[in-house]
Amino acid sequence: MSPANLHGEEFPLPNGAGIRLLLGDCLKGMAALPDGGVDVVITSPPYNLGIRYSRYDDALPRDRYLEWTEEWALAVRRVLSEAGSLFLNVGGKPTDPWVPFDVAAVFRRHFTLQNTFHWVKSIALDPEDGRADEPLCVGHYKPIQGHRFVNDCHEYIFHFTRTGAVPLDRLAIGVPYQDKSNVTRWASARADRRCRGNTWFIPYETIQSRHRDRPHPATFPTRLPEMCLRLHGRERIRLAMDPFLGLGSTAVACAQLGLSCIGFELDPDYFAIACERVRQAAAPVLPGLR
Question: What is the pTM of this model?
Fold first, then answer.
């Protein structure tokens, strides 16, 4: 079944998987998808914080915003498989910190919150932490003026599932043990990998021009959806989806991992950039796509 009346671009991958990007409303697009046909959803919807998107009005009355949130939450629930995962990235701002929790409360009506991850964009280490000889700041942050609030250096990633009992491939994004004695102490540690936990340090890549290199005001790095895909378990993903495609980071991650993906985007300018990014991501294995 194909989403009707939506213009699209398709990018086949050599392993038989494929990326399909569609220009149009995700509610219309998801309405044409079969029940339970999507195994992973990774997305970051508009936060309704007055962000300056190219065309979308990000300042709806809060009641209407949450009503719309429930509309697309129900659409996602219908297409998500019984053992599927929804990774929902939502941020707030110091003067309006409740948005992530308001959105999560809507999803609580229809999903189980299985994990909460903290996407850390910037972190500071002091010498007494034992990791640096002098204060070390890593990552990028948006400075805040005034004296009421500290700089906001993280966002939430809510991991929703239908049942709360979806198995995860925790070591797929695991990290080595710092104390190597653990490797010999426990049988489960012999691979020298432990669960990363729920704090993910993923800084933005350094850019020269915001207008040229990151024209979308609220995109996330490709590594974020890549980690979500690996955590869910690549071998259990028939189809991934991003209802709010933006510049296409989820689709790019899927192309790099050889996974099928469908994405929806309302803005034709963002859509064109997403298509080009996926084309470039697929180019090393499919030169003919250039």
Answer: 0.89
